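Table S2 (text version). Query chain:
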Amino acid sequence: MGITKVKANILNPAHPAKKVVLEFLVDSGAAYSVAPRTQLKKLGIKAESTESFFLANGEEITRQIGNALFEYRGRQRASPVIFGEEGDSNLLGIVTLEALGFVLDPLRRELKPMPMLLM
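Corresponding structure-token output:
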């Protein structure tokens, strides 16, 4: 299994004209997306709460979390975003991927539109 990276925009939901392009590691094992605190603050995105998260190695960390708009391939949707600290990777998690209507094809290492089912 390889690594998949994509470039996507993050926008401030209250002021969508404020946006930044970031490179993200697509992580279908991560629930939420992670973006650098510095970039989120520049956009004016505010943290709504603080949550505890577990890393793959079992370590527990605490991070702030807020809401942002994500834009990829012309699709724009709201999603939670974790305020990443120094050393954290930019991640595009499954909640954001599903909100945008994409799924990771692990064999081709690319994002593909997913069937939008309403059941």
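Notes on Table S2: The two ends are 31 Å apart (CA to CA). The mean pLDDT is 92.
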